[in-house]
Amino acid sequence: MPRRVDIRNVAIIAHVDHGKTTLVDAMLRQSGVFSAHEAIVDQVMDSMDQERERGITILAKNAAVSYPPADGSGPVKINIVDTPGHADFGGEVERGLTMVDGVLLLVDASEGPLPQTRFVLRKALERRLPVILVVNKVDRPDARIAEMVDEVYELFLDLDAADEQIDFPIVYTNAKAGRASTEPEVEGADLRPLFELLLERIPAPGFDDGATLQALVTNLDADPYVGRLALCRVHNGTVRRGADVAWCRHESGEVRTVKAAELYVTDGLARVAAAEAGPGEIIAIAGIPDITIGDTIADPTDPRPLRPVSVEEPALAMTIGINTSPLAGRSGSRLTARQVFDRLQAELVGNVALRVEDTERPDTWEVQGRGELQLAVLVEAMRREGFELTVGKPQVVTRDVDGAVHEPMDRLAIDVPEDFLGATTQLLALRKGRLEDMVNHGNGWARLEYVIPARGLIGFRTEFLTETRGSGILHSVFEGYEPWQGEIKTRPTGSLVADRSGQTGHFALMKLQERGQLFVGPGEEVYEGMVVGENARAQDLDVNAVREKKQTNVRAAGSDDTVRLVPHQQLSLDRALEFIRTDECVEVTPDAVRLRKLELGGTARQKLARAGKREA
User: Fold this and answer.
1) Which of 311, 391, 416, 359 is nearest to 88 (CA)?
2) If residue 107 lies in a helix (H) or strand (E), which one and from where to where?
3) 407-430 confidence digits (pLDDT tens)
4) 42 pLDDT higher than 70
């Protein structure tokens, strides 16, 4: 099979926070992508606001560097695909792997392989992609390089890797300093050892010399001037700007002849116009407004569609609808059901890991995704665009297997100080966790591996950080489906619910703060059915949060003491979604995140509670 020796396509895959984007920064710097006068920011590939705020990669992105090999041959273009490290965005990883011929598996020299490492490696091995192990952060004082490499070998064996896949090369890096070496004891001067190993072990893209044009669309982008861009890799043939191409739709099987109005290739971080692109190139095509992920660009005289991208099924769902609270319409600009539905449909175009299903209500939809974070990122993006929404509690997506209900299970890895082992295991036992492995590294920290129902992790992070005083670290990834594990009680406390509308005051809140943690401060608008705090007891409690102190002309010693309010807790969107129960929801507006009951009226809630007890 002929190959394009002047191109390499490689993806960087790893667990979250192991240094993927930092390594890409160093590769871009040392390959001369940035000009001498250009201001350089860290994590330059994390371009979204939420990516920078959360410190994670959410969307897969690609860059290209030109590297002159040490043997003096012509420069080689290296297309680098930076993939997310969080399990909730695994759909981006799966699509990114369809564009490359090999992967750099990045692993922290201290933490070793974690749940997302297993997930991304499994996907790479299924596609029979060659792997280069990059041991990053070798400068850490707690680095345990030899043990970590052994753990990676065990992971390969556990995933049933082929013999040739287990024989992977290893390079040791300090991505922050831009250094790499092929020996663990030797500190490199730059990233040349990594580049040379990449050219040696990642195969050049192959193609069929006699085949016609075939390019699979794996991602979408938009340009304000040319409209929707289809990002794809050319598998065979050549595509030319302005030429007619066949658009093969994977959903309907329809084939239409369209014009490739614009053609771009990646140079550094920018897209540059190109007259044509051959096999192995990662390109962007404009001029096809309705093209979607999974479609194929082919030769109009001999259209041969490629197999579309397949991703794993969603495991979590929550309802998203219009804002129906008494405070609706005060801060948002997009309020109608039609606008919400159109926005959700637009999200489906570029995010194949999501599903949108109808519900009994015409203004509410069930959105299914990989995990809580993925759905929270979508809601946060819509909030910033001016939407006002009502968001329900995340629920797991169950399956019926041989007449029995099965639920999604996650593999959970926890690093925790030894002092908090007892509290951690007790928390996980209440949530039906099953201990699979426990390792003590001898440095005061232990690693626990659990298999736990996905619904048991909803709201777990906050409790876990509280019990471990903020020192614990946890990560999870989808493991599979198992029979329903039974009832899980995830929240032992109740809610303080406002019983009337009005503006909160110091006097009322001073009395309520003895009942539990407040979510509102003085001077805020509340309404009947709004959750204003967390009750220390298990039951919900209707409270008057707007009561004022009665003024009299009688003075008494101590009657005018200074009111001292404990600062209220301002809930983030992620924390609010974790906190709510099944009979509660989150009101999301551009200016505020509020909790409320699904049924606002107190009398109606009491009737529903009595009906529920009779059914039980």
Assistant:
1) 311
2) strand 102-108
3) 988 888 888 888 888 888 998 998
4) no
CA dist list (Å): 455 to 264, 421, 437, 573: 44, 22, 21, 18
pLDDT at residue 342, rounded to an integer? 92
Nearest to 284 by CA among 301, 267, 308: 267
- Strand-pairing partners, residue 283, are 232, 265
Instruction: Give bridge partners of residue 227 from the DSSP assignment.
Output: 223
pLDDT band at 36 (very low <50, low <70, confident <90, very high): very low
Task: Annotate 405-453 with DSSP letters as a single string.
Answer: EEEEEEEEEEEEEGGGHHHHHHHHHHTT-EEEEEEE-SSSEEEEEEEEE
Between 549 and 568, the more confident residue is 568
Q: For CA atoms 86, 576, 349, 277, give the dihedral sign.
A: negative
Name the pTM for this structure.
0.80
Q: Say how far apart CA 518 and CA 534 lie, in whole Å.
A: 6
How many Å apart are CA 377 and CA 379, to the nearest integer? 6
Q: Are strands 445-453 and 434-440 parallel, antiparallel or unpaired?
A: antiparallel
Identify the helix (H) or strand (E) that includes residue 384: helix 372-384
d(CA 319, CA 112): 37
| Cβ(101)–Cβ(8) below 8 Å | yes
Letter for the amino acid at 364?
T
- 45-79 pLDDT, tens per residue? 555 567 666 666 666 778 888 888 877 778 888 88
3-state secondary structure of 230: strand
Task: Identify the sign of the CA torsion 233, 236, 240, 246.
Answer: negative
The torsion angle over the Cα atoms of residues 455, 457, 460 and 462, rounded to 10 degrees, is -110
Q: What are phi and psi of 233, to 5 degrees?
A: -105, 135
- Number of CB atoms found within 10 A of residue 606's CB: 12
Tens digit of pLDDT for each residue in 425-482? 998 998 889 998 888 867 788 888 899 998 888 878 878 888 888 888 887 778 888 9
Q: What is the pLDDT of residues 161-195, one digit of tens each?
A: 888 888 899 999 998 888 889 888 888 888 898 99
- pLDDT tens digits, one per residue of 105-141: 999 888 888 777 887 888 888 888 999 999 998 888 8
Amino acid at residue number 68: P
Indicate the burial class of 131 (C-beta count within 10 angstroms; 0-12, 13-18, 19 or more): buried
From residue 261, how far is each of 16, 242, 264 by CA, in Å? 38, 5, 10
369-393: string of b/e by CB count within 10 Å (b at 16+)? bbbbbbbbbbbbbbbeeebbbbbbb
The single residue listed with the structure tokens 């005060």 is 330
Exposed, middle or buried by CB within 10 Å (0-12, 13-18, 19+), for 18? buried
Complete DSSP assignment for 326-367: TTTTSS-SB-SHHHHHHHHHHHHHH-TT-EEEE-SSTTEEEE
Q: Across all residues in the chain, what is the average pLDDT? A: 85
Q: Which ranges of 45-130 does DSSP label H, i.e. alpha helix?
A: 49-54, 90-97, 115-126
